[in-house]
Amino acid sequence: MNVHQLKVFLEICKVGTLSSAADRLELKQPTVSFHLRNLEEELDVELFRKQGRTLQPTVAAEELLPYARRIVALMDDARRQMRSRSGHERVRLRLGASYTPATYFMPPYLAEFRQSNPDIELQLTVKQAGGTLAMLRGYEIDAAIVSLPDHEEKGLIVVPLVEDELQLVMNPAHPLSQMSEWSVDLLKDQIFLLHEPGSTSRRLTEQWAQDIGLSFSSTMELGAIETIKETLRCNDSLAVLPLRSILRETQSGELVSRPLPGYINRRRICLAYRDEPLYSAPVREFIRYVEEVADTLKPKTLVKSANPKLP
């Protein structure tokens, strides 16, 4: 079993055909077939079954997949690290982030990290938290900054950094903006602007509504926080948004925020990385930097985590 065979295996898992895998790897199709056949013969298992025009992974392939991802990722990291030593290639750090941290939390820290580590090339991918963590588990990124509720993530180390509670947000002209006390009855007939399904904010918003017995009578789904804020400026709807995302607008008076009635915050911006015995030098440096940043945050909003794996 060698890294070329594993790369072929991973590409077939992604695209489902020998021809597409060959195109992506810039190989001839017989070469791809040769590597796959040799891998199956060496492991003495069938990795794919023909189904229509595609190849479907077998149970054995699904078991091999995480090992193959890890081996190929470590080989690529080792090659880049050694080439960086000789000056032929810059070290690359692949980061992921969910939308709120990427927009309203990370920019100054990424700039500072980049300035302190000019030899590290940063790549940032922004998705919903679930998609970002899937990329992390799949070795497509090296570390992530995501907004998450309080629960464990299997196979990952999650370090909460700062509170990022949700708030009820509205136009200052909204009839409810002057209310000092809130009830479910006041909210049940309102139009709510909601994040698209799958986001941490949407899941926590739905959980909050369920906890207080609120059934949304009228909603509009929007994919971006900035779109939600612009829509709030133009009508009498309500939205549930992360406090960090509306600081500028509430300070300027463009929008008004109120605590969610009956809500207990479980949302935090977190650092996440794979729970492994070894980390590349850029990943270790990034983890150290983020934990140093955490030390500068207010103690009352910080949940500090010591990582015994890092020197």
Concise account of the structure shown:
Helix content is 44%, strand content 22%. The protein is built from twelve helices and twelve strands. The chain has a five-stranded mixed β-sheet, sandwiched between helices. Strands 9-8-10-7-11 form a five-stranded mixed β-sheet, sandwiched between helices.
Distance between the termini: 33 Å
Radius of gyration: 24 Å
The CATH homologous superfamily of the largest domain is called: Periplasmic binding protein-like II
The coarse overall form would be globular
Q: What is the C-level CATH assignment of the largest domain?
A: Alpha Beta
Are there runs of 5+ residues with pLDDT below 50, and where? 300-311
CATH topology of the largest domain: D-Maltodextrin-Binding Protein, domain 2
Structural class: alpha/beta
Number of helices: 12
**Helical fraction:** 40-55%
The biggest beta sheet is recorded as:
5 strands, mixed
Mean pLDDT: 86
Provide the number of structural domains: 3
Order of helices and strands: HHHEEHEHHEHEEEHEHEHEHEEH
- The counted number of beta strands is 12
Instruction: Give the second-level CATH assignment, the architecture of the largest domain.
Output: 3-Layer(aba) Sandwich
Which percent range describes the beta-strand content? 15-25%
